[in-house]
Prior knowledge:
single chain, alpha+beta
Amino acid sequence: MDPLSTAETWAREGRAxxxxxxxxxxGSAPRPVGSHLVIDGDGLFEGSVSGGCxxxxxxxxxxxxxxxxxxxxxxxGVADETAxxxxxxxxxxxxxxxxxxx
Length: 102
């Protein structure tokens, strides 16, 4: 199932859901703009925004977005102090918008 269909299904089931969307890339980012990761309130997720480089950080931030209802724009890249921690050492940059959808 694709992440958007999963988000709809999980919302219909009454789960708290956040949707992460790649909104900007630069360099060797492994996923294109428009890629999605859907996360539920228990931390389960489907999809990908970076091919495994930043998914853990996005899931962690999504928990706060679900709790507060406040969306946020996450930025990762080699110019960012989190680059080495999350694994974008290949030289790319990525911006991911995370919003609560249910």
